[in-house]
Design a protein that fits this description.
The complex is a heterodimer.
Chain A (H helix, E strand, L loop, with lengths): L38 H27 L13 H8 L7 E3 L5 H6 L4 H9 L8 H4 L10 H15 L14 E6 L6 H13 L3 E7 L2 E2 L2 E2 L11 H5 L3 E5 L3 H16 L5 E6 L18 H8 L3 H11 L5 H24 L18 H21 L1
Parallel strand pairs in A: 1-2, 2-3, 3-7, 6-7
Antiparallel strand pairs in A: 4-5
Chain B lengths: L1 E3 L1 H15 L3 E5 L15 H5 L4 E3 L4 H13 L3 E5 L10 H8 L2 H4 L9 E6 L14 H5 L5 E4 L3 H13 L4 E6 L8 E3 L15 E4 L4 E5 L2 H15 L4 E5 L2 E3 L4 H10 L2 E8 L4 H12 L9 E5 L10 H4 L3 H12 L2
The chains are: A alpha/beta, B alpha/beta.
The structure holds thiamine diphosphate.
Thiamine diphosphate sits at the interface of chains A and B.
Chain lengths: ~375, ~325
């Protein structure tokens, strides 16, 4: 198992699909699909989401290499953790991501090009959270766990938990990493969530690294066990198993919607790539570890399962590959075509009510800029 | 003599300080095995061990708060904050604890710790990676705030900061880390080195005094070069120490030039420039031919990087202010 051995013994995981593509049972969690939907269809959907998400990732990494993006936070290896959980939310649920949740953004219907604006430096993200029920990315580690808890307290106040109406009852999900678990904000979020029994699900993607620090630097016990110290349940799930992540997240969200309060899910996974495109992981981890985790690839195991059980034909896989190629092409062209913002816009949303001083600075800026135009003309 | 970048100079300076005093510890996120995200601590854990170069958990308040305790125990922690925008989770510890410990214990406890922060913009980074928080710290009594603009200062100032018995916020202009290589005389006598809390003349001149620090010094040296082509002689002062603020060389200069402009990357509103202009107006009132002008960034949050060049003061905007002082 490598670096985490002494602290994290072979993890006590909820698993429903083995790395070899075999379905297995778990006493507490079963994979179930919504009434009226076909299970194979849903699993094929997961496969497609994961494959397209991987393409968003590889294409964006390439775009960064070509100087089109300033930076990119890769998610390679975390597709099941993101798609499994992302597809568990109901439309009315609200999600708070970190800066790496490109797969969850995909599930919430965000155009990946919108996500790229942040990494290209043409916007700070800039989507309307209310349109997607998906907050903007948060770069400052752990801060969003408090926002999610407060949002969940608001949902609770609005009487949108425990009504029994599946269209109304609402849960909040918040993503963070194993490194983030060391931040005071995350502990405070858990204290508030427990204290107010807020309908929030903490989704920790333990990809085992916070840049160069292994998760043993953050916690001497498996992270999911932290929950009991705060007074709510925690569970560890195989983060590379999309069925298990989906089943566990669905259960936790339902619990929250029913008014039973917060829960912590630790999706135990692995960051196959670098931390970001500026990071060099060869300085701190061994290639053996990476090779070991390649065998647990989240996409390959679903593919094996679908093919072996005759749930998807080779042509179907070929179609998805083609769709990924088209998506890749659209991202490449679309990214280069993203317009640079008009600098005058930087004065416009500092306040909801513009101040006289900033209006003056804006006017000065415009005049100053125009003075160059006159020189050129 | 060795030719070094600022990044290498800081690394060598840290090494020298650790060799000199075994109470010096480095702590921060990724400073050990990785050598820091900017590689400023590269190789130090390998040579000094994990007990002296601590890869910390991902918690800024934790880094500074534990450094406070270590300082009380006689150590000299040098904390790295990974990026300017991530110092705020530690802000409470720095402002409420580090800054006040000596005062509230009536001098019985000293806080000889250094907080290194890569700061400033111009590198095309995403949000929270390009901030200029100097005024927030310089406004806090009990903290000392310095910033280096070149490899020579980087090498000596970091050692002087570590040797200081007061807490020092040590700001490193990240866009200069790899900008220029210059000769550093590591064997220089400390008596030949400018004391830490002083400013220096980066380029002599006689028509106008341009004050800058950190990332803006290089820009201001270019301004002076450009102005020289138009026949104007500009003296550039590198402020280096923002708290305490040493305006001695600037005042001496203004008495000769009669004009002054201050440039910094931080927002103009309540920035260092405001304090500097006010003090110079008091001390040099009769020498000034024009008000002291300030050039800073606009009073907006740091914008997306594609337009940061419009936001940050550049050669043209500083020259523009220089020209305006001659219109009075
Ligand atoms: C408060 C704060 N400190 C430092 C950083 C710099 N930083 C960005 S990501 C990261 C590691 C995060 O690790 P983890 O929480 O495990 O999430 P992962 O990136 O592995 O998904 C660090 C230190 C930051 N963004 N915010």
């Amino acid at each position: 198992m490598g670096l985490n051995d002494p602290v994290h013994p072979e993890p006590d995981l909820v698993q429903l699909l083995t790395p070899e593509g075999e379905r297995v049972d778990h006493p507490d969690y079963a994979f179930a699909v919504p009434d009226g939907t076909d299970e194979a269809e849903v699993i094929r959907g997961f496969y497609r989401d994961m494959l397209l998400t991987r393409r968003i990732d590889t294409e964006s990494t390439a775009l960064q290499r070509h100087g089109e993006l300033g930076l990119w936070a890769q998610l390679l290896g975390q597709e099941a953790a993101q798609i499994g959980s992302g597809r568990a939310f109901a439309p009315q649920d609200f999600v708070f991501p970190t800066y790496r949740e490109h797969g969850v953004a995909w599930c919430r219907g965000l155009d990946p090009l919108q996500v790229l604006t942040l990494w290209r430096g043409s916007e700070h993200g800039g989507w309307d959270p209310a349109e997607y029920n998906f907050a903007n990315y948060t770069v400052v580690i752990g801060a969003q766990t408090l926002h999610a808890t407060g949002y969940a307290m608001g949902v609770q106040r609005d009487g949108l938990v425990g009504t029994g109406d599946p269209e109304r009852d609402t849960a909040v999900g918040v993503y963070f990493g194993d490194g983030a678990s060391s931040q005071g904000d995350v502990s405070e979020a858990m204290v508030f969530a427990a204290s107010y029994n807020a309908p929030v699900v903490f989704l920790c993607q333990n990809n085992q690294w916070a840049i160069s620090a292994g998760s043993e630097r953050q916690s001497r016990i498996p992270l999911y066990q932290r929950a009991s110290g705060f007074g709510f349940p925690g569970v560890r799930v195989d983060g590379n198993d999309v069925l298990a992540v989906n089943a566990v997240t669905r259960a936790a969200l339902q619990r929250a919607r029913d008014g039973e309060g917060p829960m912590l899910i630790e999706a135990f996974t692995y960051r196959m790539g670098a931390h970001t495109t500026t990071d060099d992981p060869t300085r701190y981890r061994t290639s053996d570890d990476v090779e070991h985790w390649k065998l647990k690839d989240p996409i390959a195991r679903v593919r094996v399962y679908l093919s072996r059980n005759g749930l998807a034909a080779p042509e179907w896989f070929a179609d998805v590959d083609e769709e990924a190629d088209e998506l890749g092409h659209r991202l490449r062209e679309g990214c280069k075509a993203l317009p640079d913002p008009d600098p005058v816009g930087m004065f416009d949303h500092v306040y909801a009510e513009q101040t006289p001083e900033l209006a003056r600075q804006r006017a000065d800026f415009v005049a100053y800029r125009d003075s160059f135009a006159e020189v050129v003309a | 003599m060795t030719r070094m970048t600022l990044a290498k100079a800081l690394n060598a300076g840290l090494r020298a300080a650790m060799e000199k005093d075994d109470k010096v510890l480095l702590m921060g996120e990724d400073v050990g095995r990785l050598g820091g995200v900017f590689r400023i601590t590269d190789g130090l854990q390998k040579d000094f061990g994990e007990d002296r170069v601590l890869d910390s958990p991902l918690a800024e308040s934790g880094i500074i708060g534990t450094a406070v305790g270590m300082a009380m125990r006689g150590y000299r922690p040098v904390c790295e904050i990974q990026f300017d925008g991530f110092v705020y989770p530690a802000y409470d510890q720095i402002v409420s604890q580090v800054a006040k410990m000596h005062f509230r214990t009536r001098g019985m406890v000293t806080m000889p710790l250094v907080i290194r922060i890569p700061y400033g913009g111009g590198i095309g980074a995403v949000e929270h990676h390009s901030e200029s928080p100097e005024a927030q710290f310089a406004h806090t009594p009990g903290l000392k705030v310095v910033t280096c603009s070149n490899p020579v200062d980087g090498y000596f100032m970091i050692q002087q900061a570590i040797a200081s018995d007061d807490p020092v916020i040590f700001l490193e202009p990240k866009r200069q880390y790899h900008a220029d290589k210059v000769e550093v005389n590591e064997g220089a006598e400390m008596s030949d080195i400018a004391p830490l809390f002083t400013s220096t003349v980066a380029r002599p001149g006689s028509d106008l005094t341009l004050l800058a620090y950190g990332p803006m010094v290089k820009t201001c040296l270019k301004v002076a070069e450009a102005a020289a082509l138009e026949g104007r002689s500009i003296e550039v002062i590198d402020l280096r120490s923002l708290s305490p603020l040493d305006l001695g060389p600037a005042e001496e200069s203004i008495r000769r030039t009669g004009r002054a402009v201050v440039a910094h990357e931080a927002h103009r509103n309540l920035g260092m420039g405001a304090e500097i202009a006010a003090r110079l107006a008091e001390s040099c009132f009769y020498s000034l031919e024009a008000p002291v002008l300030r050039v800073g960034s606009y009073d907006t949050p740091y914008p997306p990087s594609r337009i940061e060049e419009d936001y940050l003061p550049d050669l043209d905007r500083i020259l523009d202010a220089v020209d305006r002082t001659f219109e009075f």
